[in-house]
């Protein structure tokens, strides 16, 4: 598992609202996302399908089962061409005006069992999320 944390000068409730927004609007947070479709939505989970075209890579489709409860959103892979696993987005109150954001990624190659390790990608995801949240406040 890889993870990255960074603090943002923002109250926990505002960070949480953006985490919830991210579920249905990942294109603002994840590079290369298109064709987002919410296939199922219940009180317990959301099934989301989307295409991703990573920089320098080939477009692929991913289907995720997303669960959320304060202050954790879990993106569990249902369908992916290479990986199985999940990503957790966690928000933790530091003070009334500061929140710690942590993304943890636990992906395994379905063929080799090898752990996906791209620390730069998870760091960029946290920083892109923080940038989006701060822009919404401006």
Written overview of the protein:
It contains two helices and seven strands. The protein is of the alpha+beta class. The chain has a domain at 2-29 and 71-137: START domain (Alpha-D-Glucose-1,6-Bisphosphate, Chain A, domain 4). A seven-stranded antiparallel sheet has the order 1-7-6-5-4-3-2, covered by helices on one side. A hairpin with a 3-residue loop joins strand 5 and strand 6. The longest helix has 19 residues, at 119-137.
Task: Explain the layout of strands and helices.
Elements: E1 2-8, H1 12-24, E2 33-41, E3 46-52, E4 60-69, E5 72-79, E6 83-95, E7 98-109, H2 119-137
Antiparallel strand pairs: 1-7, 2-3, 3-4, 4-5, 5-6, 6-7
Strand order of the largest sheet: 1-7-6-5-4-3-2
CATH architecture of the domain at 2-29 and 71-137: 2-Layer Sandwich
Strand portion = over 45%
Low-pLDDT segments: none
Mean pLDDT: 95
What is the global morphology?
globular
The helix fraction, in percent, is: 10-25%
Separation of the first and last Cα atoms: 34 Å
Which class best fits the helix and strand makeup? alpha+beta
Give a quick precis of the structure:
With 138 residues, the chain is an alpha+beta fold.
